[in-house]
């Protein structure tokens, strides 16, 4: 028996519109959520057009062999950053002319495995053994509008196509459950003296990988309660007869991180020669969404855990990409510097109760965020629908060779910078405490 994909009804209209414009083919991503019983597809997003591709198509007869896998996988990586917990790239689609239909499934299969390989490299978590690993391959003929849906097991390189049902449903996310939390972060990452060229990105990744294991082992309180993982998430929240309970329910979650290892775990101290350290401190806003079909507690907790891990990893990646773009990949020695970390924001999308996510630097205007949504998600959004979830955060990079006087001066300089930020924002003294609590510091010490 193949997988069943329940699909938001508006996606059918979107794909139909694309099929009238396609010349000779178009590819895209399917975004949704897996569950043991069925999968949910809540968005379809076309691959952004590439000028070079348009020029190649005008020079000769179209061929699917000319598909730019790197362009498509890069798009998938960018889109995955914009998805809150519980959502993932669930598959790929292709709309093609009848002449190209014959090779369509082979091309889709190749794309599915390429996209999954690219996304898995960025993850700091491992899929659970019982987790659904099938991904959808949707093919539509632009002339006949015939829809063929199959699935492939991305954990099996030799997986063959399996038939799958593609069923449209209206208001698919109306009864979904939202979960949110704020996680305080205090991560100390040593930089080994043997680390080549003070590889900040690699060391940060290793430190985040260790931290992600602590998140995996944390205790999650849902609405103030510890719930058994195998119980239903909505147990005790049944609708009363005759009541009009809001369709979208929100659960507040507290994350309790263990301060030490369990008594059964043996630990030994390790002495290492270090050239400095990286410190990540602050508070991150996290959110996850779960389908409303009797979801289990473990599904909700897993989705939120992954959002916590992903959001910190993503913003570090974005920061390093920005540094390389502005300062060049050859920069190895860092002096005292300040940077502003990207803030997380959530965006309401028309026709869905699920909010999408993005990150912005302080100097980015709302128009730039709107352009990114159109380019990455083929989705126009209004400025008033963008909600910044976090206060301004800073990155502090300082050398280890500071003398005591230099260190005091550096601390004074940082305090002065923060004071200026507060004055510019018109904050009162009472509000300053909240701002300092949300500061997301990134300290780097080098020889």
TrEMBL record:
Signal peptide region: none
Listed Pfam families: ODR4-like
Compartments (UniProt record): Membrane
Cellular component terms (Gene Ontology): endomembrane system; membrane
UniProt entry tagged with the keyword Kinase: no
Segments passing through the bilayer: 425-445
Function, as annotated: May play a role in the trafficking of a subset of G-protein coupled receptors.
PANTHER family: PROTEIN ODR-4 HOMOLOG
Name the UniProt record assigns to this protein: Protein odr-4 homolog
Chain's gene name: Odr4
